[in-house]
Design a protein that fits this description.
The structure is a single chain. The chain is built from 21 helices and no strands. With about 500 residues, it is mostly helical. It folds into 2 domains: about 350 residues, MFS general substrate transporter like domains (Growth Hormone, Chain: A), CATH 1.20.1250; about 80 residues, no CATH class. The protein starts with about 25 loop residues before the first helix and ends in a 6-residue tail after the last helix.
């Protein structure tokens, strides 16, 4: 077990005005507006990409493979872009570059005329998302310190989904009025330009989102982490998430299923997608709030939502596949809000880029495999595809149970917030010999809402200064650790020989 050589905290300057000219909530809303405009572009294209690829000669299996590869590109590449965001500590340039890639690739679909070029540009758009998403989420995590993780990410996702509704409806209007896919893609350059303008204004207004979460700088400066790997419960959570995505179809396969059976016209597909995005918006806010109050228990609904999708969307009855679109969208809303919020709580603050990158790599590889397999199974009958999805979601539910059983959700406490703070203060008051400067640094963490980091730092400092708490104090701190979802090795330091 590697320990820091010297507990040498540096004081945090007080009273220095922050560099940001807007509040955290306005930042979250501002990024929601940027994401909404960008969503008009790429969700508009995404809503019809299945039928469009089909018009270029693609089969259901090819569509599943191409779109699955796109989703994997958007997720797996974050394994590297997330670490890059951690390493550089400059999230803004990476975020802007990612948006530029996306907002250029989509309008260029207007000049493609073959399957290979269309697939390349679609996947290029997904690469843009891989570049920007970890850096953007790091900034949103900073802004969410006082707002609540679930609320901040849910609010951002809800605003994001407004664009996800408008984009498909714009495409539907163009197609219904006699336009074609290429004209639709070309018109998406307009909201793309507006998105870049809004992003530029937001960057000027909030050049340093890290200033909203000083505890991150403090934790990195103090270097009191015992290891650099990601926590065990993070990997348990990632395994559950991978299983849910292995049994979750992409929209392109569902849309292809409806148009290839001539159940709906191509112009109706984006309308259904807009309905799905409306459901995603509502679910994002609702499950974000549930996460803030109940932790991960709200995710129990996810396998049931995903398992219901094929039985509804592969139906021949209009009412059922409309409901299927709503259920699919609601599941996406849960994925995009609760899952992002949970990663921010599972992973140490200074490792969030790596955490998001690793999580989405696992998530994306599973979705790639699942999308390709579901598309292939669908060609052999919708029953086979539906049965596969049902089995994988049952496995996902089984994998979620140990995550819920192993203590409270990270950042969520069986002790309430006030009780955690009281116990941390009691432990510091009883720690004779703990330097005042160290106590002040831990107080900064507590005031910033970083109770998990404060607990871990307190345990390490007690060990470093050879302070052995009384038995009752050890029991009290162990309860704090369990409530916060801390690694047991930190609590073990309380009784270790220094």
């Amino acid at each position: 077990m590697a320990m820091p050589d010297e507990p040498a905290p540096a004081p945090v300057a007080a009273g220095v005005p922050g560099p940001n000219r807007i509040s955290p909530v306005r930042f979250v809303v501002g990024f929601g507006v940027v994401s909404a405009l960008a969503d008009v572009v790429y969700e508009g294209a995404r809503s019809v990409i299945g039928p469009y690829l089909g018009s270029l000669g693609a089969t259901a299996a090819v569509i599943g493979l191409l779109t699955g590869a796109g989703e994997a590109a958007a997720l797996v590449l974050r394994l590297f872009t997330g670490r890059w965001a951690d390493r550089t500590g400059r999230p803004w340039p990476q975020t802007v570059a990612g948006y530029l890639i996306t907002l250029v690739c989509v309008p260029l679909l207007a000049v493609t005329g073959n399957l290979a070029a269309a697939g390349l540009l679609y996947n290029g758009e997904r690469v843009g998302k891989a570049v920007r998403a970890p850096a953007r989420d790091i900034m949103l995590a900073h802004a969410s310190t006082d707002l609540g993780r679930g609320y901040a990410f849910g609010l951002h996702e809800a605003l994001d989904q407004i664009g996800a509704m408008v984009g498909p409806l714009l495409i539907a209007a163009v197609l219904a009025s006699g336009g074609n896919y290429r004209l639709s893609f070309a018109l998406l350059a307009i909201p793309g330009g507006l998105a870049l303008l809004a992003l530029t204004r937001l960057r000027v207004a909030a050049p340093d989102p890290l200033a909203w979460e000083p505890a991150v700088q403090l934790a990195e400066q103090k270097k009191l982490r015992l290891e650099k790997g990601l926590p065990r419960r993070f990997w348990q959570y990632a395994a559950f998430s991978a299983a849910t995505m292995l049994g979750f179809s992409t929209w392109a396969v569902l849309a292809y299923s409806l148009t290839s059976r001539h159940l709906i016209s191509p112009a109706v597909v984006p309308v259904l997608y807009a309905l799905a995005m409306a459901a995603a918006s509502v679910a994002a806010v609702a499950f974000g709030r549930i996460y803030d109050r109940l932790g991960l228990r709200g995710l129990l609904a996810l396998p049931f939502l995903a398992a219901a999708v094929p039985y509804l969307s592969f139906s021949n009855h209009a009412a059922l596949f409309v409901v299927g679109a709503v259920v699919w969208g609601a599941a996406m809303g849960v994925h995009e809000s609760t899952m992002r919020a949970a990663v921010a709580d599972f992973v140490p603050s200074h490792r969030r880029g790596a955490g998001y990158g690793t999580f989405t790599a696992v998530y994306g590889l599973a979705w790639l495999a699942g999308a390709a397999l579901i598309g292939w199974l669908y060609e052999h009958g919708s029953t086979a595809a539906a049965l596969f999805i049902l089995v994988t979601q049952a496995v996902a539910l089984a994998l979620l149970v140990p995550v819920l059983r192993n203590g409270a959700a990270p950042g969520r406490s069986t002790l309430n917030r006030g009780e955690v703070v009281v116990r941390l203060h009691q432990a510091m008051d009883a720690a004779v010999g703990l330097p005042a400067e160290t106590i002040d640094q831990i107080e900064v963490l507590i005031r910033a809402g970083e109770h998990l980091v404060a607990f871990e730092n307190l345990c390490v400092q007690l060990y470093e200064y050879h302070i052995r708490p009384a038995a009752e104090q050890v029991r009290s701190l162990r309860e704090v650790g369990v409530s916060l979802g801390a690694e047991s090795r930190y609590s073990d330091l309380l009784t270790a020989d220094g």
